[in-house]
Amino acid sequence: MAEFFGFILVPLGYVMRFAYSITNNYMLAILLFSLLMELLMVPLAIKQQKNQIKQAMLAPKVAAITKKYAGRTDQATKQKQQQEIMQMYQEEHFNPAGGCLPLIIQLPIIMMLYGVIRKPLTYISRLATEDITALSQHFGQKAVDEIGLVGQIRDNMSELVTKFPSLEGAIIPQTKVGPFDLSLTPAIQFDPFNWLMLIPVITFVVMIVTQKIMQRYNYQSPEAAEAQNKISTKIMMWTMPLLSVFIEFQMPAAIGVYWIFRSILQMVEKIIIAKIFPLPKFTEEDYKKAEKEAGKEIKQKSSGQFVRSLHHIDDEEYLERHKEELKELEEAKAEEDKKPGLLKKFGISKEAVKTETKTETEVTESSEAPAAIKNDEKTTYVNKKKKKK
Predict the structure, then answer these.
(1) Distance between CA atoms of 142 and 345, rounded to whole angstroms?
(2) Does residue 99 sit in helix, strand or coil?
(3) What angle do CA 251, 254, 255 make, to 5 degrees?
(4) Are strands 180-181 and 176-177 parallel, antiparallel or unpaired?
(5) Which residues are 193's β-sheet partners?
(6) DSSP 125
(7) 176 has which bridge partners?
(8) pTM confidence score
(9) 62-95: b or e for each residue (b if 16 or more CB lie within 10 Å)?
(10) How many CA atoms lie within 13 A of 75 on its CB side?
């Protein structure tokens, strides 16, 4: 990772070194470094917020489409509903996956920040990789843990300088905060009480609280809100904080401090951006208006001819959409014998009306019709109806 992202890790290392030169304390340097990096990622956070605003503004239209298919749970209906929603998104020039792009970009950045934090000897002390490996072997460590080495180097500096000349004049970070040494790994210990074990506990609480608060400022579609109420989603919400606690009992306490700072900074950033770019709020009237507009758009797109869809799921929609026209046709049919030629003003023959009425009766009264009739199944379906009669 260091080799692949070296062109980015090196400048980030200079930022970390600068943060330590100002604070002269590794914990405060982590705080300043996290703050500077979070400010650099503000444009990505703003882009994500604007994407959520756009999605929230389209919520009434999504609700109108969803309501049109309410009560239908067959797969064909769900697919048709999803197709209409995606078509509406395309017409509105909205990409529902656009909000994922900032997250995808942030992920490698966060990994690189984590890499800089856990390597103070590389990016603050500026020691060569060979010297760091040799120091790790000197203290009997199988794997190189740079934060863990810092404390041991400071305690044995006078002896190590003769064996490792590169340490002379090098900046060895101060990892102690009062009586606590953040280069040590938290352990569950009560006699004497190990105060460092509180850091994983604080991390767990902070992560849970920040997740809850940030959810209030994120747009959630009805589907997402419903999913959050499921047990599986709630388990996932608790899984990451619990996993963090487990990891922090395996690594130096400085890592836990970094996670605490980062969670708090992200929450504050989210609240500030949400206040500057608030999500739109809609009333019941807004949703009703969206339903009417959706109905008008459907009617405008109609060709004006009474062509029933071959999908059985469209029957109720068809009848609702053309109820006024169908009513006029029924009245015209009843008056045809009295006033010949009345149907001509509709451009429809007697045979067409009979066929339309017959098809409507067959489909609406049938309790054995399938959930969806594909175009290539029309002939088979009609023949089956004739045999039954």
Answers:
(1) 92
(2) helix
(3) 55
(4) antiparallel
(5) 190
(6) S
(7) 181
(8) 0.67
(9) bbbbeebbeeeeeebbeebbeebbeebbeeeeee
(10) 3
Q: How many CB atoms lie within 10 A of CB 351?
A: 8
Tell me the per-residue pLDDT of 333-383, one tens digit each, with 9 for 90 and over: 676 556 555 545 555 554 554 554 544 444 444 444 444 444 444 444 445
- 280-310 confidence digits (pLDDT tens): 887 777 777 766 766 555 445 544 444 444 4
The residue type of 150 is V
Q: How far apart are CA 252 and CA 248, in angstroms?
A: 7
Question: Which neighbouring-strand residues pair with 180?
Answer: 177
**Range picked from 11-25, 64-78, 144-158, 342-356 for highest mean pLDDT:** 11-25
For 377, the 3-state DSSP assignment is helix
DSSP letter assigned to residue 193: B
Residue 362 has which token pair? 């067959």
The segment with the largest mean pLDDT, out of 55-64, 95-104, 314-323, is 55-64
User: Which two structure tokens, joined as six digits, stand for 252?
Assistant: 């130096």
Mean pLDDT of the 14-38 span? 91
Q: How far apart are CA 376 and CA 258, in angstroms?
A: 62
